[in-house]
Amino acid sequence: MTSALDTDWMAQGNCADKSPSIFFPSDGVGVEAARRVCEGCPVKDQCLNYALDNRIDHGVWGGTSERERRRILKARGVSATVTTLA
Ligand code: SF4
């Protein structure tokens, strides 16, 4: 299981030497370009779980779009909204 604070895996990703802007596309073409970088990434599962655990709603993580992650969370019965304790 990936800890919410565990980010060591990021250095092993296919995107480690790429511009982060690739993963925050403004259209579907950009999403597909980011997904191609994610294909075969050795830390794809950790990346997706990190985004899901932290309810990251922007960008492509673990080869998934924002919409796909919302769908995954909904299927799991989890709210996509981050809640903070006061
Ligand atoms: S799955 Fe994609 S965004 Fe995540 S670390 Fe790998 S290349 Fe980067």
Descriptive report:
This protein has helices at residues 28-38, 44-53, 66-75. The chain has one domain (8-75). It has 3 helices and no strands. By secondary structure, it is mostly helical. The chain binds iron/sulfur cluster. Residues 13-15, 23, 37-38, 41, 43-44, 47, 61-63 line the site of iron/sulfur cluster (SF4).
Radius of gyration: 13 Å
Sketch the major β-sheet: none
Which percent range describes the beta-strand content? under 5%
User: Low-confidence spans: pLDDT under 50, at least 5 residues?
Assistant: none
Bound molecules: iron/sulfur cluster
List key phrases describing it.
86 residues, 0% strand, binds iron/sulfur cluster
Question: In a few lines, what is going on in this structure?
Answer:
It is built from 3 helices and no strands. The chain is mostly helical. It has one domain.
How would the blueprint of this fold be written?
Layout: H1 28-38, H2 44-53, H3 66-75
The structure holds iron/sulfur cluster (SF4).
